[in-house]
Amino acid sequence: MRVSRRSLALFLIPEAILYAAFLIWDVTIGGRGSNPIKFAGILLCLVYSLYLSHQGGSRLVSAALTLTVLADVFLLLLDADYALGIALFCLVQGLYFVRIVRGGSRNLWGLRLALFLLSLVVLNLLDLLIPLNILALFYFTNFFCNALSSLSCPGQSMRLFSVGLWLFLCCDTCVGLFQNPQLVPPAVSAFVSVGMWLFYLPAQVLITLSGANPPSGGFSHETK
Prior knowledge:
The protein is mainly α.
């Protein structure tokens, strides 16, 4: 499937406007006032992804973006039910794991388990071993392994997907540091408050675009 230039422009131009708008707001005004603008950018990703899947693109990406939007309802708009929001993001990474494995990459089960257990030890040493943090690190360690695995996936769409995942990972790293400012210097803490969305929307845009072209070979059935 080839995406028309017109439909691509109708997606990317509004995304660029929304991106500039909330970044300017965050740098000059700050606070939660830009959250509806940010959410609009993610919602537009979902709408375009659904259009691409209707045209023969990846349904897995559309499903993952649907869960992403639901998670952002809780974490961004409502600023509540963090455990549910993180659990939804775990499901997002589960779908991306399926996409990566079908793309021919390794599952890295051993590394996933080792990193999660090591993270529990670190949480305990930092006196941060609470259920919400355990869930967050389960999510993050699996996300990191997904990003690693995506590097070996062949094809242009999967390379785009991999870049999107790594930007997404940068966003979540900023989120973790923002939630624990005592772990970083003040200058870093000031950056991560803006850096979260500096990375997040471009990540979701790239992931959305990666669903436009059905992968070749054994992964082609992913769009069905």
